[in-house]
Design goal:
Blueprint lengths: L1 H18 L5 H8 L1 H13 L5 H12 L3 H12 L3 H13 L3 H12 L7 H13 L3 H8 L12 H12 L3 H8 L9 H13 L3 H15 L4 H6 L1 H13 L1
Helix pairs in contact: 1-2, 1-3, 1-4, 2-3, 5-6, 6-7, 7-8, 8-9, 8-10, 9-10, 10-11, 12-13, 12-15, 13-15
């Protein structure tokens, strides 16, 4: 039993490090110092970032990722409410079961896409995960007039989907609003790649330069979180 508890603790710490894009050396600390390394990681990287209840729930989800889904399915069976169905769909999406997540989101909306913009945005996300670009576009065009659509990740995914079906001009129009200072680093990197492919090198360089400048003023946690994308930005700048 003790052996499995140690493995579970290591698994959680490794998952947390991956999820938060922490420094690579943490993997070595966790693996080669199973107990001590995991404890050090917990107290330096986890406990100061959230309360104990959240950590405990995450550990359970790592050990048994379907438990949350089963519990939420029971809640839905007991009370078939809009929120219970959305909670189940969210849990399905979290474990990568996008097809069933979509089914639950669509059932909740029941073709009434004006019912909840937030759910439509979740649908856009999961449809993009399974590369159903036509459905991404269909859902996005239901909420384009929403006040919180402009500059959102949903609009960005809409733009990417438009590019996939060959509507480059409209794609660029919907991708550019994601370029917002001190945020959206991964999306801005993808936007810069898009602009490079379209021959708009100057525009791409401007975005990349801004990201690199902003990275110099990041807090330590954010530098760790966005380290991979900042490295990608540096490589793209060097290639231009």
């Amino acid at each position: 039993m003790q052996y499995f508890l140690i493995l579970a603790l290591q698994g959680f710490c490794a998952y947390h490090a991956y999820k938060n894009r922490n420094q690579y050396y943490w993997y070595f600390v966790i693996i080669f110092l199973p107990v001590l390394g995991s404890i050090i990681y917990l107290f330096t990287q986890v406990f100061n970032k959230g309360d104990l209840d959240v950590v405990q729930n995450e550990i359970v989800n790592v050990i048994n990722p379907t438990k949350k889904v089963k519990d939420l399915q029971k809640q839905l069976d007991f009370a078939d409410t809009f929120q219970n169905r959305i909670n189940l769909a969210d849990a399905l999406s979290e474990i990568g079961d996008y097809t069933n997540a979509i089914a639950e989101y669509e059932t909740a909306l029941n073709n009434n896409y004006d019912k909840d913009d937030g759910v439509v945005k979740k649908l856009i996300e999961v449809y993009y995960h399974i590369k159903d670009f036509e459905s991404v576009i269909f859902c996005a065009e239901k909420i384009t007039l929403s006040t919180n659509f402009k500059g959102s990740r949903s609009q960005f995914l809409y733009g990417l989907a438009l590019e996939e079906i060959g509507q480059s001009d409209k794609a660029e129009e919907n991708l550019r609003p994601i370029d917002q200072r001190y945020s959206n680093y991964q999306e801005r990197y993808v936007l810069a790649q898009f602009l490079v492919e379209k021959g708009k090198i100057g525009d791409a360089k401007e975005i990349l330069s801004e990201v690199l400048t902003e990275s110099q003023h990041m807090s330590k946690p954010n530098r760790s979180k966005y380290r991979v994308v900042i490295n990608d930005v540096q490589k793209l700048v060097s290639s231009l």
